[in-house]
Amino acid sequence: MGKQILIITPSVMAARGLESVLCDAGEFEVSGILRDLSPATQTRLHKLAADAIIIDPSVFDYASRANARAYLAEYSDGAVLALLTASADEESLKQYDGVISLLDDPTAVVRKVRAALENRGDAPRTEGEELSSREKEILVCVAKGMLNKEIADRFNISIYTVITHRKNITRKTGIKTVAGLTVYALLNNLIDVGDFD
Fold first, then answer.
1. Taking 70 as the threshold, does the pLDDT of residue 126 lie above it?
2. Which CATH number do you get for residue 11?
3. Segment 135-157 mean pLDDT
4. Would you say residue 125 lies in a domain?
5. What is the number of structural domains in the chain?
6. Among 144, 139, 152, 147, which residue's Cα sits nearest to residue 193?
7. Which residues of 62-87 are buried (b: 16+ CB within 10 A; e: fewer)?
8. CA distance linking residue 124 with residue 169, whole number of Å
9. Is residue 126, in this structure, part of any structural domain at all?
10. Checking CA distances to 81, which of 102, 113, 155, 188 falls within 20 to 30 Å?
11. Containing domain of residue 158, as a range?
12. Domain boundary among 119, 146, 163
């Protein structure tokens, strides 16, 4: 199975073209295509464990575009690439792990997605590596359904530090979903079933 890619864009043509390019590369699989970030879509976003998200910044309202990466971090610790279907503010594009233009040829698109995945430190699981005490605390919060911002506020750390901890937890456990991490926390006595009232 290839790397799981989620595409979020209101343009069906852009989404289908990108899906075709990625699937033809043979190393990626498009796990979903979403047209917006409505509440119904956000529920799907939680369930789709993607290694990378390719998102059109136009799905965010203008005021939210500068914080798009932090918003998506609530749903995924994977790489996030911007898909430019219109002009965008250069400063807001710096938050992404890569930028794909509609004018890019297929080879450039594949190269950019690979680079974003590599830069996100998509390292293989290290067998026998223990979770640190802070990672265990973060894992408990994730299992209890806390958002990255809530975890950051609770431990007085930045949201990016929380994302790094979550990435390390995923790498060490090999588990990408919140449900899987919750089961892991239960089986390792980090939380009790009574904690879910």
1. no
2. 3.40.50.2300
3. 91
4. no
5. 2
6. 144
7. eeebeebbbbbbbbbbbbbbbbbbee
8. 12
9. no
10. 155
11. 133-195
12. 119
Alpha carbon distances (Å) from 160 to 3, 12, 21, 59, 134: 23, 32, 31, 22, 14
At 13-23, the pLDDT tens digits run: 999 999 999 99
Backbone angles phi, psi at 50, to 5 degrees: -100, 145
d(CA 63, CA 176): 30
- Higher pLDDT pick, 174 / 140: 140
Question: Cα separation of 177 and 181, whole Å?
Answer: 6
What are the structure tokens assigned to 15, written together? 């989404």
- Please give the pLDDT value at position 165: 86
Task: Select from 119, 149, 179 the last residue of a domain.
Answer: 119
pLDDT attached to residue 125:
46
pTM: 0.62
